[in-house]
Amino acid sequence: MIHSKIRDYELTITPDFSPMMNLLSDEKAFFVIDQNVYRLYPQLFSRVDNDRLFLLDATESEKTIETALEICEKMIQLHAKRNARLISFGGGITQDVTGFAANVLYRGIHWTFVPTTLLAACDSCIGGKTSLNYKGYKNLLGTFFPPEQIFVCSKFFHTLSEADFQSGLGEVVKFNFLMGEEGVKNIEANIDAMIQRDTETTNRFVESSLLYKKNYIEADEFDNGVRVYLNFAHTFGHAIETVSKYEIPHGTAVAMGMIAANRVSVSRGIMSEQFALRMENTLYKIIPASALRVSLKPEQLLGAIKNDKKQINDGVTAVLMDETSQLSLVHDVQTQEIFEAYSYITKAR
Ligand SMILES: NC(=O)c1ccc[n+]([C@@H]2O[C@H](COP(=O)([O-])OP(=O)(O)OC[C@H]3O[C@@H](n4cnc5c(N)ncnc54)[C@H](O)[C@@H]3O)[C@@H](O)[C@H]2O)c1
Ligand SMILES: [Zn+2]
After folding, report:
1. How far apart are CA 44 and CA 260, in angstroms?
2. C-alpha span between 156 and 346 (Å, rounded)
3. CA–CA separation, 142 vs 150, rounded Å?
4. What is the tens place of the pLDDT at every residue in 246-293?
5. Which residues of 319-329 are buried (b: 16+ CB within 10 A; e: fewer)?
6. Do 337 and 318 touch, CB atoms closer than 8 A?
7. Which residue, 230, 234, 264, 265, is CA-closest to 251?
8. pLDDT by residue (tens digit) across 154-208?
9. Which listed residue, of 82, 122, 295, 319, carries a Cα 20 to 30 Å from 204's Cα?
10. Helix, strand, coil shares of the chain as percentages rounded to 5?
């Protein structure tokens, strides 16, 4: 159970698809399913009636208010009432679009979400954020609206591409680094099994990531305080995502962002080279070679960081980690520090 000022909600980790079968036999519900997931699991979705189904093209260019409104319109045509239920299956893109639609239709309808990517399962499915891209800017529009029920099943991860699975691992690794020495050791010992997609190990880490995040979102649901620490590496990561035009997915950009953020910590003398290299060793295992081949110019990355909507000061705001994994929010990261951090990761190719 996750406590929320909007409504408490329930997350269930399930070893198989049986709870999904129940959801899918709800004859009154409206379904939004990532079209790739729909195609990959034909048996699972065979009983969903086409009239009550919206297949979503899960791309950043479709993560827009127009798509959310199309979903609302389709539900209105079906005479959906305030007690209607929307059930969505997919990753973070599906979550963002359907969460927004479920929030604005009649000021909020019932919504159940089944994350099908590792990233959505270990991270985004809780916390209640819905974000849409607008006029080319990422996540510019958004609300807070958690699903009422979430069902996590790692069976979905078997069909994820290597790139999408590794992207999810980026957030799993981040949560463990935030836990301090214990977390760093734990991830070092288990990262190889997770890369091999060992079910038991992956399930364990999905659960511990969610439990870790739960503390922060319950303490600071609307992101005005401690929740900012979960944004460790995201200042650097978002710029990487943007400059790569989303060729580098979110979690992989965060993994690269951790290397960059730690470089700033090393140059400020708050983290030893040795500790940074130790974390890098793990991170380079989950950053695909294809991501390292994407052309990223430090000048462009710097420009993207300065354009980020979250940057409100002259100095750049970022969360930095120290030698004991303590985090601090600083507002004075200098151009030169960012340039050097990015030069370091782009030279690693
Ligand atoms: N709302 C939040 O709190 C929050 C947090 C983090 C990220 N996000 C957003 O989430 C998005 C990224 O989400 P994501 O990484 O979960 O993936 P995604 O939704 O972008 O999907 C990635 C790809 O995987 C495919 N896919 C999904 N499930 C699959 C499966 N089981 N098997 C095979 N293919 C599958 C999709 O069709 C898509 O091609 C970004 O837009 C990001 O901004 C939101
Ligand atoms: Zn993230």
Report:
1. 42
2. 33
3. 20
4. 999 999 999 999 999 999 999 999 999 999 999 999 999 999 999 999
5. bbbeeebebee
6. no
7. 234
8. 999 999 999 999 999 999 999 999 999 999 999 999 999 999 999 999 999 999 9
9. 319
10. 55, 15, 30
> Using CA atoms, how far apart are residues 40 and 275, in angstroms rounded to an integer?
41
Of 203, 180, 117, the C-alpha closest to 190 is 203
- Tokens 């959310």 found at: 68
Cα separation of 169 and 163, whole Å?
Answer: 10
Token pair in block for residue 112: 């159940």
Six token digits for residue 319: 């969360």
The one-letter amino acid code at 249 reads: P
Nearest CA to ligand 1 atom 42: 92
**Residues 53-87 pLDDT 10s:** 999 999 999 999 999 999 999 999 998 888 999 99
β-strands 316-321, 137-144: how paired?
unpaired
Q: Ligand 1 center to residue 117 CA distance, Å? A: 6
SS3 70: helix
Which DSSP state fits 67? Answer: H
Cα of 82 vs centre of ligand 2, distance in Å, is 32
- Please report, as a single letter, which amino acid is at residue 106: Y
Which is it for strands 316-321 and 327-333: parallel, antiparallel or unpaired? antiparallel
Angle at 321 between CA 201 and CA 287, to 5 degrees: 45
What is the Cβ-side half-sphere exposure of residue 285, based on CA atoms within 13 angstroms? 17
Shortest-distance Cα residue to atom 20 of ligand 1 = 93
Domains and CATH numbers, the chain: 10-158 (3.40.50.1970), 162-347 (1.20.1090.10)
Pairing of the two strands 110-115 and 149-152: parallel
Three-state secondary structure along 99-167?
A: HHHHHHHHHCCEEEEEECCHHHHHHHCCCCEEEEEECCEEEEEEEECCCCEEEECHHHHHHCCHHHHHH
